[in-house]
Amino acid sequence: MTGLGSEAGAAAAGGREALEAALDLAGREISAATVAFHSALAAHRGLTAIEEKTLDILLRDGPLTHAALAQRLHLARASVTNLADRLAAKGYVRREPNPADGRSVFIAADADRIAAELTPLFDGWTTALHALYDRYSGEQLGTILDFLRRAAAEQEQAAAELGPPGL
Prior knowledge:
By secondary structure, the chain is mainly alpha-helical.
């Protein structure tokens, strides 16, 4: 995407409907770019994009049971069991006893290994993103943050409504 400022200005000149259409398209573009980035990043470490995003969720949320991770990923439990098995075999997660329920276990990310092997792959993107932040005022960044959080919540709800496949 080039000339983003002029594109937004042109869309705004066309009225709210044109601006919303441009936002819809930009949302699709960032979604595709996000999938491509995470797929490429994961492939550098022999992971799939879902495996890499699972590690991200475990780092942010902490250890989760299979059921909680299945709900968070919107996957069937059997799929999460296979996913956890693959990540454990690759050394990125471990299973820990659940002290509150002896029948279940937590899946925990190996934060040190992730920091050493995956985090550096984000450096270029993080640097570019922080440079982009500099183009906006604090108030504008607050509005962008509010929008992104609300959009993420809406997308989580849409995923929940779809439910895991086969259920």
